[in-house]
Specification:
Layout: H1 4-7, E1 16-23, H2 29-39, H3 45-57, H4 73-78, E2 85-90, E3 95-100, H5 108-115, E4 120-126, H6 133-144, E5 149-155, H7 164-181, E6 186-190, H8 214-220, E7 234-235, E8 238-240, E9 252-256, E10 261-263, E11 267-271, E12 275-284, E13 287-289, E14 291-293, E15 297-302, E16 313-316, E17 324-333, E18 339-340, E19 344-349, E20 352-366, E21 371-374, E22 378-379, E23 384-395, E24 408-412, E25 419-425
């Protein structure tokens, strides 16, 4: 029997890789990205000419490739990355969406934004400095966000005479730390972004290294998170009811399938109401189909007339998620104003937004050593902590470990719509491979 993955191989997301870069200040992230774009011939002539002109004004003999991604004036003046810079490029083997994220501690929230949808994270380390506090912080963020693949790029190997023992020591230390966090796959590559060693072309200076270049690894790494293999989830975005002469009785529920596969004739449950029905029809691109899968945008027609509106979730009855009003999660606080116990917020999950209140902040995570600071009372910008949120209405949340799409949510300031925090439901870190069998540790209208 053909598996779901094989059946939909032609529409698999393996042709697109989303990846993020991270590293400490001056580790060479932007230079690596610039080198990757330059050597893979993914930049336009006028872009290169602009970089060459700016570099010449600074008295540099060669183009500063970091300028290809450091687009903000403050970034160019200070020589650092502040905002997340997205770049789109392609090779003959694969298309890429790249997020170049900042290295400063105060921009941890920007890394969370860039890596939240990444299939792979490239963590840079300066070969002269080895694994430092910020390296461990970036590895921890990648683990929290369940990024399935991590590449350790040991940069500036030219400044340590391309010494194999330097690379080996750094790779061993980082791999041990990342494995403790539950990162499933770690690949270490020695590079020099400035000279181009092992970025796109193999290095002639490190004949002791027999692994892939950065680009080769990006082109061949499997995108293992198959959305069609997860239980089906269909957040309703819009109810279509034309009530026209041509379609007098048409009632359809439009949205994007977040995960899984839906079939005509399948028994489904609508959450949070718990009402059940059967899929009578699926409309996609103006025609009826018998089957649809993530991440297609479709319209479902059900056999029974049920009260369904935007924010409801349709799922197969056999694998419907449980609903809850008590959300336990890890959040990264991204706003400048603190998030305190008792704060009244809006919680946005898929297409559903409900009122909520922060009941507890059990701990704040210290990313340097992964220690927990108990009962901090509040979280400030760039803090990562555990929260317990009580919602006004039930939510059909999956664990973030099971689904990054339906296990994530936002906390929003109801006063002005500012995003306060990005949340990941369930346990913080994945269980270590050797501990897989162990149990995890674990006012009026607003008062509910």
């Amino acid at each position: 029997m053909t598996s779901t993955t094989e059946q939909f191989a032609d529409v698999s997301t393996t042709t697109l890789l989303r990846f993020a870069t991270a590293g400490s200040v001056d580790d060479g992230k932007s230079t690596l990205v610039g080198r990757l774009l330059h050597d893979s011939k993914s930049i336009l002539t006028d872009q290169l000419e602009a970089v060459e002109a700016v570099s010449a004004q600074r008295g540099q003999d060669t183009p500063d490739l970091a300028l290809l991604t450091d687009g903000l004036r403050a970034e160019r003046e200070q020589g650092i990355t502040i905002d997340v810079a997205y770049r789109y490029f392609a090779t003959a083997q694969r298309r890429f969406i790249l997020a170049d994220t900042p290295g400063h501690v105060q921009y941890t929230r920007n890394m969370v934004t860039g890596a939240s949808t990444a299939d792979l994270a490239v963590v840079l380390v300066d070969a002269r400095n080895g694994v430092i506090e910020q390296t461990r912080r970036h590895a921890a963020v990648a683990a929290l966000l369940r990024v399935p693949h991590v590449v350790l790029a040991v940069n500036k190997m030219d400044l340590v005479d391309y010494a194999e023992k330097v690379f080996a020591a750094i790779a061993e230390e980082f791999t041990a730390y990342a494995s403790e966090l539950g990162v499933p796959e770690i690949t270490a590559i020695p590079i020099s972004a400035l000279a181009g060693d092992n970025v796109v072309e193999p290095s002639a200076n490190m004949d002791w290294y027999g692994g892939p270049t950065v680009l080769e690894h990006l082109e061949t790494v499997p995108v293992s998170h198959d959305l069609t293999a997860c239980p089906a989830r269909f957040p309703v975005q819009y109810v279509i009811r034309p009530q026209s002469a041509e379609h007098p009785d048409y009632r359809g529920y439009a949205g994007q399938i977040a995960s899984g596969v839906l079939r005509v004739g399948e028994a489904v449950t609508v959450l949070p109401s718990g009402r059940t029905s059967t899929i009578e029809g699926i409309d996609a691109l103006g025609r009826s189909v018998d089957i649809a899968w993530a991440p297609q945008s479709v319209t479902l027609r059900l056999k029974d007339d049920i009260d369904i509106s935007r924010g409801d979730l349709i799922a197969p009855s056999a694998s419907a998620p449980a609903t809850t009003q008590d959300v336990e999660a890890t959040v990264c606080h991204v706003a400048d104003q603190p998030l305190a116990v008792g704060a009244r917020v809006l919680l946005k999950h898929t297409t559903r937004t409900v009122k909520a209140i922060v009941k507890e902040i059990p701990s704040r995570l210290t990313l340097d050593d992964l220690s927990q600071h108990p009962e901090p009372g509040q979280l400030v910008a760039n803090d990562i902590g555990r929260v317990v949120v009580r919602t006004a209405e039930p939510l059909a949340l999956d664990s973030y470990a099971d689904s990054r799409r339906t296990g994530s949510f936002l906390l929003i300031d109801p006063a002005d719509g500012t995003t306060l925090a990005a949340g990941m439901a369930g346990a913080a870190f994945a269980s270590r491979p050797d501990a897989a069998d162990q149990a995890p540790h674990d006012d009026a209208e607003w008062d509910f």
